[in-house]
């Protein structure tokens, strides 16, 4: 059993995860099959044949962000990730604010997805078996599954995610192979990447969805304490994750366009966005593959839920260990070495939200998923902007052997680009929520969540500085290795 020498208490299972396992955690959080089948048609509907390039642009921006982000990896030796990076670069107050924002962001990103899980499972089971089971029943079953796996060994969770992710990417690769072999609807061509089809008035709308599709890629750093050779494993996993997502998303969206033909793809996306990829699968592979994809989209969402659940529990564990959260959040299972009590409390919170939405008869997709998820998207991108600034501040007086490009230029470019992405998301909030006009009460409420969270985080930071100055002074600096 791994223990902390100072406290003789169990610690996270060190040396358990390799590069592949961590990369799988991150890619699974993004739910590639759900993004392609459920969201990409909306991007094609807005941008037409130029849609694939939006994912390449978002991926390139996040790769630039990763340059500076990974430079700090060897100096942050705990599971604190964003809040620890920001605390080391910009001070304890900024770090504590980020910790609060991170907890809220990852929680809403996960909890909202239970709406999608319930809706897709109810629809698929009903279609295949004739059983009419309410969406919220399936959502609560999902909560139980995620709790069970999340409270077990991280190794168990990683193997489960690898299996699910291979299945969901495999079905998409099957579709891609069939479209390529048959030459698409009108012959394969590359007009999707022509500048004239990319630089259009709809680029902002496309990028809004494209950046949201990468949610969770930065969570590689959360697994530092459980990684083998973390100084190498974490950077590699980060680059692999962002490269895979950017290239795979762009490739599969292009495949979707080629399946219908550049002239008809946008029309197909607008007429039936939810069925676009399923129709392509049925046409090019067969109805059995379309049915299989309906099943695998459920497991794709489940994998995403587990990945976000693990991220949440490790944030809470790190904050508890630094006495920012109560000690109970940091208690580990004596055998599984997992934050099992945090896992249980987070699952109870998710179940409570699902039950509330069910009691008020709110829609699991347009309301539970979209309304609850959207603040998390703003929170994560906002944290990425601040992390990029923190990297510059951390290395400003001493580059520690790194090049100017890696610790100044790249993070500065990333901060500007990500700030622009945040602005696009704010401008296009109605596209994310499906509620018009832009300044409808629902949209204003969603936009207000993160500013309110920042204020709450600031008040918590001030209280800790006044009442626990010894804790405030070392926020994010605990060396768990």
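^ Assign residues to that structure.
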């Amino acid at each position: 059993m791994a223990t902390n020498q100072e406290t003789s208490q169990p610690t996270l299972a060190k040396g358990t995860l390799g590069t592949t396992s961590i990369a799988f955690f991150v890619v699974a959080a993004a739910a590639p099959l759900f993004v392609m089948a459920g969201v990409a048609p909306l991007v094609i509907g807005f941008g037409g044949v130029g849609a694939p390039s939006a994912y390449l642009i978002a991926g390139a921006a996040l790769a630039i962000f990763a340059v500076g982000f990974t430079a700090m990896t060897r100096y942050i030796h705990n599971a604190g990730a964003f809040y620890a990076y920001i605390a080391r670069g910009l001070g304890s107050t900024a770090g504590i604010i980020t910790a609060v924002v991170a907890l809220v962001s990852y929680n809403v990103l996960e909890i909202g997805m239970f709406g999608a899980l319930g809706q897709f499972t109810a629809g698929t089971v009903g279609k295949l078996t004739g059983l009419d089971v309410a969406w919220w029943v399936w959502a609560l079953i999902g909560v139980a599954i995620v709790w069970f796996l999340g409270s077990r060994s991280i190794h168990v969770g990683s193997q489960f995610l690898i299996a699910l992710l291979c299945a969901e990417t495999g079905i998409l690769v099957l579709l891609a192979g069939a479209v390529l072999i048959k030459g698409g609807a009108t012959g394969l061509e590359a007009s999707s990447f022509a500048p004239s089809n990319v630089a259009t008035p709809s680029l902002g709308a496309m990028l809004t969805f494209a950046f949201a599709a990468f949610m969770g890629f930065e969570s590689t750093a959360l697994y530092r304490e459980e990684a083998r050779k973390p100084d190498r494993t974490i950077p590699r996993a980060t680059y692999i994750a962002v490269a895979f997502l950017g290239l795979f998303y762009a490739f599969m969206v292009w495949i979707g366009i080629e399946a219908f033909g550049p002239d008809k793809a946008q029309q197909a996306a607008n007429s039936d966005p939810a069925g676009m990829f399923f129709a392509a699968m049925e046409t090019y592979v067969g109805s059995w593959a379309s049915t299989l994809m309906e099943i695998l989209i459920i497991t794709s969402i489940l994998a995403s839920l587990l990945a976000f659940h693990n991220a949440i529990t490790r944030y809470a564990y790190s904050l508890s260990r630094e006495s920012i959260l109560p000690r109970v959040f940091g208690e580990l299972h004596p055998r599984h070495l997992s934050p099992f009590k945090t896992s249980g409390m987070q699952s109870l919170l998710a179940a409570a939200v699902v039950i509330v939405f069910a009691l008020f008869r709110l829609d699991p997709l347009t309301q539970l998923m979209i309304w609850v998820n959207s603040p998390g998207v703003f929170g994560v991108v906002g944290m990425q902007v601040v992390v990029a600034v923190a990297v510059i501040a951390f290395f400003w007086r001493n580059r520690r052997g790194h090049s100017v490009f890696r610790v100044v230029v790249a993070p500065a470019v990333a901060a500007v680009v990500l700030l622009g992405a945040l602005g696009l998301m704010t401008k296009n909030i109605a596209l994310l929520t499906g509620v018009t006009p832009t300044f409808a009460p629902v949209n204003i409420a969603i936009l207000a969540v993160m500013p309110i969270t920042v204020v709450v985080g600031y008040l918590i930071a001030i209280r800790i500085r006044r009442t626990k100055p010894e804790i405030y002074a070392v926020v994010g600096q605990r060396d768990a290795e």
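The chain has one domain: 38-472.
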